[in-house]
Amino acid sequence: MKRPKPTKQLFIELCGGNRGLIESIHHGLLETPLDAFYPHLDLDEILAFEASSWKTREKDAETFSDFVKSAEIYDIFSKVYEIGSPWLNKHKNISEKLVERYAKLNPFGSKNLKLRLGGVKVEDVESLKKKLQEGVNKYVFACQYQEAKRMGDGDNYKLAIMNFQNVYPKSGKIVPAFASENARIVSGYPTNYESLSF
User: Fold this and answer.
1) Residue 21 and residue 87 in contact, taking contact as beta carbons nearer than 8 Å
2) 5 vs 2, 127, 137, 142, 157, CA distance in Å?
3) Domain range spanning residue 93?
4) Which of 8, 67, 179, 188 could disulfide-link 12, Cβ–Cβ 3.0 to 4.6 Å?
5) Is residue 149 part of a domain?
6) The pTM of the whole model exceeds 0.90
7) CA-to-CA distance for 116 and 158, rounded, in angstroms?
8) Taking the C-alpha atoms of 30, 45, 115 and 54 in order, what is their torsion angle to the nearest 10 degrees?
9) pLDDT tens digits, residue range 64-105?
C-alpha cells in the first residue's frame, strides 16, 4: 500500500498559511524525525505531533522531558495531540483540488492509534523518546546569525540557520518557503504504509 507525496501547496493549505504552525512543524520535523513512524500514521498525525511536541519542548523542555522519560509511546502521542490536533484542525483549509491527495495521505482516518503505534520498532520508539528529551534549536535567518551568535557570547550551540529561507525575512515568502521545505522533508519518508485490518 503506497500513498502520494505531499506538495508545497498542500502544506500551505494544511496550515492555512499560519506561520507559527508551519514553523513549528518544520522545527519538529528536523529535530524529532518521524520517518520510522510514518508507515503507521496519517500525515495529519505526523504534523500535529511535530508542531505540538516542538512547541511544548520550546516552552518547558524540562517538564516534558520528565514526562517522556517514563511514559508509554501511546501516552506521549495522546498528550501531544491534546494541543496538536485542535491547532492543526483550526487552520486546515484544504481546497477541492487537493481533497483526494489529502485523503490518500491520511489512510487510517485517525483510528486505532494504539494498535498502529504498537507496530513501530522498539529501537525507533526509544530513539524518538531520547530526541524528545532534548532542548530545542534556535532558528534564525542568515542575516540574523552573527547577532544571535554575539548575543550568546560567541556560542553558536543549537543555533540553526534556515538556509532554505531568503537571507533577509521577506513578507509573503516565509510561509511558502517553509511549505516547500516541509514537503521536501516528508517526501523523503517511506511512501508505503501498514494496512491493518481493523
Assistant:
1) yes
2) 10, 25, 27, 29, 33
3) 8-187
4) 179
5) yes
6) yes
7) 33
8) 40
9) 999 999 999 999 999 999 999 999 999 999 999 999 999 999
